[in-house]
């Protein structure tokens, strides 16, 4: 494959306006498939979850999964969409060995949800509203394995094998309107948009929402419009970009690739393109052509879906707070700066920080522990921070510091104990004997001893050279094995020296 | 020829219930008849190897005192369009040759639950596309009244099996007349239920929005008994109605006893009465006589107009091929059925599919798939499929207006008597016009019934009467159908089928 | 007169995945032209004010609860397969990419 020429990204943006569009497929986590009672489950043997309907046997007929409709309506509502008064399924017809009936039962001109929007927030703090054209229901195809040939890819394979366990699994396809005005942020907009969809889907609980497992799949449409032109350029559709980072990279790559072609006087071919994670490049797939004639028509084996307004409102009442609204609310309530808040969000720590605050910690403390010490340990151990300790542990630790029973330094030692599984912070304090010495008698004895050992220092202090007290304080802290409040020690040192 | 095979299903059921006759004897008598005459008739594509064993189990359970449904132990033939776990289900096509489904169609499961004895699978036009059973990939069925003639189609196997006394009952499927037209030309009874009245799950789909499974028999009562077994809601078929259906057998019994015809408003559909020609003279004659007999019996006969029916055949031949082209896409050589590799060039899955579908489908199936593909193509959809769906609305409106004036509508069930084998097979348009009388009911979803109304004087072949009722009023058809059947058979002094040739029983 | 040409029929046969011979193409072209001419009249009465009927008996909201039903056994699922490898259906290599 010839290597694509790329134009410098900044140069590309200077000359062209990127126009985006996304089609995100969300696999629903219903118990059964979209049109039959076979389990929507993986990991067992091939073709274990199949029946006459999802195998496309002669005589098989579809029956709509009510839960899939509910999930689709809830997802539509969460995307700010209108829910259709009446909609239908249609048959999208093409022959392919993984498509059991040789048509996909999908929605065509009558989607269940339409006209929504999602606001995405970029790292710079810039907000952009992405308009949703539609969210429609459809079914997944079976899984093909290509055997022989060098790569396991379709090209050059000797033959292919089909497993229909995934055939008929419910999907919702979310289609954006064209996204203009993203400009140099276009790659990040792609990542942020798909991330926002993932967050919404996860908050609704309608999908397992793991991109790496294909629960969410993104097709990215990119075209370039020369500055000053009004007409849209020819677009490409990069298929199955399956991580947030890849979405960003793929959009960036297409902008640079298309710009290079256009600058060289070439034209863009309308085609699907494949994303290659390893090389970070896209390659040409099937050209779109007039021969693509899917012969859609209303699925005659199914009747219309006409969700009553009452049902829609009942479902609306089950919606969790939208992720974006929740973030705004929490940031304001906690009084964080945008940057501080972004740290928490980017670390995936929003839930645990919220729970830690709920357990009694101040928002600042909660943030400090989770994004600081705990993030460091988690990073070193290669695990998620929330697996190390509970929000209650962090809240307790934070209150021990606030009450002066622990110093920050001691608290870090206690945290190590908690992470090591020695118990709650209170238990670790107890077991390790890490409590701050707050008994003035013990401190005074140690101070008098230190002053006696350093008469020159005492003289300096008496002369008003207060900064000389540091040496005595150091000695006392050492004698107390660090389990003393340095501020209190300083107070007492000055007091005793004055006597 | 055993007397057991000439009994109606109701009569046989009574003898079985009283244990005067065993199911094994009844089943064996029919198997013997099949062995004797089916070489000539070719109604069956497959004869069950389990029928006697099934019958024997029923006899044993009956001897043990078990209570049964009315048709328990009665043999039944099953159109090959229906999936059967224990028998091949080919829908008359080479592409499904030998295919044994891993499941039973809902109606077949209901037959088994009601303890009927499946005798075998009956011949049909390939994927039910045809009006003569000549489009079967396994050779045509012959009309028992005249072996040189077709038994109608697509369910010619079922109608011929019943008319030739090879089975007292059969299941058929009716997309545009495939139960009623074969019944008409074989002198038997056939009913297309209200759309959604009987499950389509496991019926190899021709046109999803038109297909209905229904009973084929020799009397209205027998059809009612079988209808009662197969009707009812099926959650596996999303277009299945949840209605609670009254007993069709009870309706038939009621109709046969009283003077149900007195005061009955009978509508003669102007567009289906042969007024504008196109109907065989003997068909028209028997129809007019039947109208006269009904009037004499006290019925109030009115003429009703259905102007949109003129467009019914055209709409039908857009909707059917469109839906069929899609339903038959799954015959792709991947999961079941025939696989043919291309003779030359690379063997890719795309080329295997194309070669398989070329080799596996007959000419009529290809014709309709291509037509349907055309009708659904981008740019043609609105003009063709979309317009045809609108014609359905107009036809429903015509029926609504007609049923405002009449309790039932009547017409000849087919424009001619049985035609000669080979006479229309190469003239698709002429073949399509055979369904002119039956198609409107499918487009509108209403129930229809065909019953014998005599023999055409010019050829001595059966002529059928079609009765139509409003949607969900299947019971009305049985009541009125049985009343007319009684009126006619009383006037003849015998049943029509008792006049059928005996057929030479050949020892095989 | 309809616009059914041999090229159109060849294109339709491609969409329908039927490998028609030249003689089949030729005879089908003639037959289809005749049939299309006779059925095109539906558009005469299909005026914009007429609604389309897709199901003869109108129903809506027919749903199934999200409860698992037994699937076929793997052997039953694969019983009719023209070719299999292990528990999967085997097909010749694929030329076209997914849609």
TrEMBL record, chain A:
Known EC number: 6.3.5.-
SUPFAM superfamilies, A to Z: GatB/YqeY motif, Glutamine synthetase/guanido kinase
Keyword Transferase: no
Ranges where the Asn/Gln amidotransferase domain occurs: 351-497
Enzyme class: ligase
Source superkingdom: Bacteria
Keyword entries, A-Z: ATP-binding, Ligase, Nucleotide-binding, Protein biosynthesis
Entry's transmembrane regions: none
Matches recorded under InterPro entries: Asn/Gln-tRNA_amidoTrfase_suB/E, Asn/Gln-tRNA_Trfase_suB/E_cat, Asn/Gln_amidotransferase, Asn/Gln_tRNA_amidoTrase-B-like, GatB, GatB_Yqey_C_2, Gln_synth/guanido_kin_cat_dom
Pfam families reported in the protein's UniProt record: GatB_N (PF02934), GatB_Yqey (PF02637)
Reaction catalyzed: L-glutamyl-tRNA(Gln) + L-glutamine + ATP + H2O = L-glutaminyl-tRNA(Gln) + L-glutamate + ADP + phosphate + H(+); L-aspartyl-tRNA(Asn) + L-glutamine + ATP + H2O = L-asparaginyl-tRNA(Asn) + L-glutamate + ADP + phosphate + 2 H(+)
Summary of the function given for this chain in its UniProt record: Allows the formation of correctly charged Asn-tRNA(Asn) or Gln-tRNA(Gln) through the transamidation of misacylated Asp-tRNA(Asn) or Glu-tRNA(Gln) in organisms which lack either or both of asparaginyl-tRNA or glutaminyl-tRNA synthetases. The reaction takes place in the presence of glutamine and ATP through an activated phospho-Asp-tRNA(Asn) or phospho-Glu-tRNA(Gln).
Xref: HAMAP family: GatB (MF_00121)
Family: Belongs to the GatB/GatE family. GatB subfamily.
Entries under PANTHER family matching the protein: GLUTAMYL-TRNA GLN AMIDOTRANSFERASE SUBUNIT B MITOCHONDRIAL AND PROKARYOTIC PET112-RELATED, GLUTAMYL-TRNA(GLN) AMIDOTRANSFERASE SUBUNIT B, MITOCHONDRIAL
Oligomeric form and interacting partners: Heterotrimer of A, B and C subunits.
Name of the protein this chain belongs to: Aspartyl/glutamyl-tRNA(Asn/Gln) amidotransferase subunit B
Lineage: Bacteria, Bacillati, Actinomycetota, Actinomycetes, Micrococcales
Automatic annotation (TrEMBL), chain B:
Catalytic activity: L-glutamyl-tRNA(Gln) + L-glutamine + ATP + H2O = L-glutaminyl-tRNA(Gln) + L-glutamate + ADP + phosphate + H(+)
The keyword ATP-binding is annotated on this UniProt entry: yes
Pfam family, one: Amidase
Residue numbers annotated as active site: 79 (charge relay system), 154 (charge relay system), 178 (acyl-ester intermediate)
Keyword Protein biosynthesis among UniProt keywords: yes
Top EC group: ligase
InterPro entries: Amidase (IPR000120), Amidase_CS (IPR020556), Amidase_dom (IPR023631), AS_sf (IPR036928), GatA (IPR004412)
Catalytic activity, EC: 6.3.5.7
Transmembrane segments: none
Keyword tags: ATP-binding, Ligase, Nucleotide-binding, Protein biosynthesis
All residue ranges annotated as the Amidase domain in the record: 25-477
Similarity comment text for this entry: Belongs to the amidase family. GatA subfamily.
Function: Allows the formation of correctly charged Gln-tRNA(Gln) through the transamidation of misacylated Glu-tRNA(Gln) in organisms which lack glutaminyl-tRNA synthetase. The reaction takes place in the presence of glutamine and ATP through an activated gamma-phospho-Glu-tRNA(Gln).
Subunit structure: Heterotrimer of A, B and C subunits.
The name this protein goes by in its record: Glutamyl-tRNA(Gln) amidotransferase subunit A
From TrEMBL, chain C:
Name of a matching Pfam family: GatC
Keyword Protein biosynthesis: yes
Taxonomy, superkingdom: Bacteria
The keyword ATP-binding is assigned to this record: yes
NCBIfam families named among the record's database cross-references: gatC
PANTHER family on file: GLUTAMYL-TRNA(GLN) AMIDOTRANSFERASE SUBUNIT C, MITOCHONDRIAL
Quaternary state and interactors: Heterotrimer of A, B and C subunits.
Annotated function: Allows the formation of correctly charged Asn-tRNA(Asn) or Gln-tRNA(Gln) through the transamidation of misacylated Asp-tRNA(Asn) or Glu-tRNA(Gln) in organisms which lack either or both of asparaginyl-tRNA or glutaminyl-tRNA synthetases. The reaction takes place in the presence of glutamine and ATP through an activated phospho-Asp-tRNA(Asn) or phospho-Glu-tRNA(Gln).
Family membership: Belongs to the GatC family.
Name of this chain's protein: Aspartyl/glutamyl-tRNA(Asn/Gln) amidotransferase subunit C
Species of the source: Gryllotalpicola kribbensis
């Amino acid at each position: 494959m010839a290597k694509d020429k790329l134009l410098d990204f900044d140069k590309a943006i200077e000359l062209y306006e990127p126009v985006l569009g996304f089609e995100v497929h969300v696999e629903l986590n219903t118990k059964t498939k979209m049109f039959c009672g076979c389990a929507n489950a993986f990991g067992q043997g091939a073709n274990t979850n199949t029946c006459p309907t999802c195998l496309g046997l002669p005589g098989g007929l579809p029956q709509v999964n009510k839960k899939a409709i509910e999930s689709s309506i809830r997802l539509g509502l969460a995307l700010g969409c209108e829910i259709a008064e009446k909609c239908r399924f249609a048959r999208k017809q093409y022959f392919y060995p993984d498509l059991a009936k040789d048509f996909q039962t999908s929605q065509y001109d009558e989607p269940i949800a339409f006209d929504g929007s999602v606001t995405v927030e970029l790292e710079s703090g810039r907000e952009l509203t992405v308009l949703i054209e539609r969210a429609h229901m459809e079914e997944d195809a079976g899984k093909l394995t290509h055997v022989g040939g060098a790569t396991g890819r379709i090209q050059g394979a000797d033959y292919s094998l089909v497993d229909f366990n995934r055939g008929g699994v419910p999907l919702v396809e979310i289609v954006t309107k064209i996204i203009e005005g993203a400009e140099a942020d276009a790659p990040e907009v792609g990542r942020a948009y798909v991330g926002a969809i993932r967050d919404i889907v996860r908050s609704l609980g309608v999908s397992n929402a793991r991109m790496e497992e294909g629960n969410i799949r993104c097709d990215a449409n990119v075209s370039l419009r020369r500055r000053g032109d009004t007409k849209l350029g020819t677009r490409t559709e990069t298929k199955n970009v399956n991580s947030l980072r890849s979405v960003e990279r793929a959009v960036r790559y297409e902008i640079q690739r298309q710009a290079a072609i256009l600058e060289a006087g070439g034209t863009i071919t309308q085609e699907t393109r494949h994303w290659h994670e390893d090389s970070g490049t896209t390659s040409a797939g099937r050209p779109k052509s007039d021969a693509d004639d899917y012969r859609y028509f209303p699925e005659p084996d199914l009747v219309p879906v006409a969700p009553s307004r009452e049902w829609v409102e009942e479902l609306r009442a089950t919606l969790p707070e939208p992720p974006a609204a929740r973030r705004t609310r929490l940031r304001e309530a906690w009084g964080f700066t945008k940057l501080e808040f972004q740290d928490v969000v980017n670390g995936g720590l929003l839930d645990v920080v919220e729970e830690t605050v709920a357990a009694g910690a101040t928002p600042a403390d909660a943030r400090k522990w989770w994004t600081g010490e705990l993030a460091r340990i988690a990073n070193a151990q290669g695990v998620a921070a929330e697996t190390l300790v509970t929000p209650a542990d962090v809240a307790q630790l934070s209150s021990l510091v606030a009450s002066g029973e622990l110093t920050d330094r001691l608290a870090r030692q206690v945290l190590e104990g908690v992470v090591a599984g020695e118990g709650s912070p209170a238990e670790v304090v107890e077991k390790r004997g890490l409590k701050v010495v707050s008994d003035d008698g013990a401190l005074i004895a140690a101070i008098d001893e230190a002053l006696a050992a350093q008469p020159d220092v005492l003289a300096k202090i008496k002369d008003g050279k207060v900064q000389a007290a540091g040496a005595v304080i150091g000695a006392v802290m050492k004698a107390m094995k660090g389990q003393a409040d340095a501020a209190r020690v300083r107070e007492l040192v000055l007091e005793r020296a004055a006597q | 020829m055993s007397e057991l095979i000439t009994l109606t299903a109701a009569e046989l059921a009574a003898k079985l219930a009283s244990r005067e006759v065993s199911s094994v004897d009844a089943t064996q008598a029919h198997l013997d008849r099949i062995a004797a005459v089916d070489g000539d008739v070719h109604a069956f594509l497959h004869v069950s190897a389990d029928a006697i064993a099934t019958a024997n189990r029923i006899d044993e359970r009956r001897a043990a005192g078990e209570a049964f449904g009315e048709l328990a132990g009665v043999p039944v033939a099953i159109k090959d369009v229906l999936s059967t776990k224990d028998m091949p289900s080919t829908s008359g096509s080479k592409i499904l040759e030998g295919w044994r489904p891993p499941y039973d169609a809902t109606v077949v499961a209901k037959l088994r639950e009601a303890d009927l004895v499946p005798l075998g699978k009956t011949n049909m036009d390939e994927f039910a596309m045809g009006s003569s059973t000549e489009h079967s990939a396994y050779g045509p069925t012959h009309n028992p009244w005249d072996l040189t003639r077709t038994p109608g189609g697509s369910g010619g196997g079922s109608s011929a099996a019943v008319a030739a006394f090879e089975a007292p009952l059969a299941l058929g499927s009716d997309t545009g007349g495939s139960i009623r037209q074969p019944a008409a030309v074989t002198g038997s009874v056939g009913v297309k239920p209200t759309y959604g009245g009987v499950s389509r799950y496991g019926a190899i789909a021709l046109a999803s929005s038109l297909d209905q499974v229904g009973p084929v028999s020799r009397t209205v009562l027998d059809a009612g008994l079988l209808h009662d077994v197969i009707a009812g809601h099926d959650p596996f078929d999303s277009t299945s109605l949840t209605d609670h259906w009254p007993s069709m057998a009870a309706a038939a019994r009621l109709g046969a006893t009283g003077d149900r015809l007195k005061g009955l408003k009978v509508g003669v559909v102007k567009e289906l009465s042969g007024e504008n020609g196109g109907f065989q003279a003997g068909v028209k004659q028997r129809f007019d006589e039947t109208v006269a007999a009904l009037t004499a019996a006290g019925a109030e006969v009115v003429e009703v107009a259905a102007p949109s029916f003129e467009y019914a055949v055209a709409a039908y031949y857009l909707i059917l091929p469109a839906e069929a082209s899609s339903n038959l896409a799954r015959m792709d050589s991947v999961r079941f059925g025939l696989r043919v590799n291309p003779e030359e060039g690379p063997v890719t899955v795309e080329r295997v599919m194309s070669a398989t579908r070329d080799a596996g489908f007959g000419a009529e199936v290809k014709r309709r798939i291509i037509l349907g593909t055309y009708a659904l193509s981008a740019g043609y959809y609105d003009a063709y499929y979309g317009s045809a769906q609108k014609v359905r609305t107009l036809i429903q409106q015509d029926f609504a207006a007609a049923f405002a004036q009449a309790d039932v509508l009547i017409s000849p069930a087919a424009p001619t008597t049985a035609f000669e084998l080979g006479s229309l097979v190469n003239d698709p348009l002429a073949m399509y016009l055979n369904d002119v009388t039956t198609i409107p009911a499918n487009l509108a979803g209403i129930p229809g019934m065909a019953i014998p109304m005599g023999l055409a004087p010019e050829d001595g072949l059966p002529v059928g009467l079609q009765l139509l009722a409003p949607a969900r009023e299947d019971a009305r058809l049985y009541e009125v159908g049985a009343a007319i059947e009684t009126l006619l058979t009383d006037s003849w002094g015998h049943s029509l089928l008792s006049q059928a040739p005996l057929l030479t029983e050949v020892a095989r | 007169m309809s616009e059914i040409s041999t090229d159109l029929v060849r294109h339709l046969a491609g969409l329908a995945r039927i490998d028609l011979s030249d003689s089949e193409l030729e005879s089908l072209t003639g037959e289809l032209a005749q049939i299309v001419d006779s059925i095109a009249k539906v558009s005469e009465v299909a005026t914009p004010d007429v609604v389309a009927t897709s199901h003869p008996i109108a129903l809506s909201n027919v749903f199934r609860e999200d409860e698992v039903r037994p699937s076929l056994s793997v052997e039953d699922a694969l019983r009719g397969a023209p070719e299999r490898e292990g528990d999967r259906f085997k097909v010749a290599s694929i030329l076209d990419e997914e849609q």
